[in-house]
């Protein structure tokens, strides 16, 4: 049986400001791609990925600010936007956002 691998520790620098800042950067990159005229090779999939990742990070920033640890956000919610939105609603995210 192969040895059990343990994941590397999460970085210490992550907090709500870092998550929010990264979210803004991913969203800005998505906006730039969205406003750039298409070339022979499309990049709409990349634009959607960047926007989705921005949404994930801003939700994690909100949840971290309201008491969820980075470990919980990474392990319990991962990249699942539905779970993140559900948890954010429990923490006070309005339905109209």
Structure characterization notes:
It is globular and about 45 Å long. With 97 residues, it is mainly alpha-helical. Helix 1 packs antiparallel against helix 2 and helix 2 (44-65) runs parallel beside helix 4. The chain has helices spanning 16-35, 44-65, 70-77, 81-90. The chain contains four helices and no strands. The mean pLDDT is 86.
Keywords:
97 residues, globular, mainly alpha
Architecture blueprint of SSEs:
Layout: H1 16-35, H2 44-65, H3 70-77, H4 81-90
Helix pairs in contact: 1-2, 2-4
Compact overview of the structure:
This protein is mainly alpha-helical and 97 residues long. The chain contains four helices and no strands. The chain has helices spanning 16-35, 44-65, 70-77, 81-90.
- State mean pLDDT (0 to 100 scale): 86
| Terminal residue distance | 49 Å
Approximate strand percentage: under 5%
Number of helices: 4
C-alpha geometry: globular
């Amino acid at each position: 049986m192969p040895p059990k691998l343990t994941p590397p520790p999460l970085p210490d620098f992550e907090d709500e400001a870092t998550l929010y800042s990264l979210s803004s950067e991913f969203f800005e990159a998505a906006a730039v791609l969205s406003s750039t005229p298409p070339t022979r090779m499309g990049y709409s999939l990349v634009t959607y990925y960047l926007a989705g990742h921005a949404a994930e990070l801003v939700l994690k920033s909100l949840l971290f600010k309201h008491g969820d640890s980075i470990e919980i956000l990474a392990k319990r919610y991962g990249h699942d936007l539905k779970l993140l939105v559900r948890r954010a609603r429990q923490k006070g995210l309005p339905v109209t956002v």
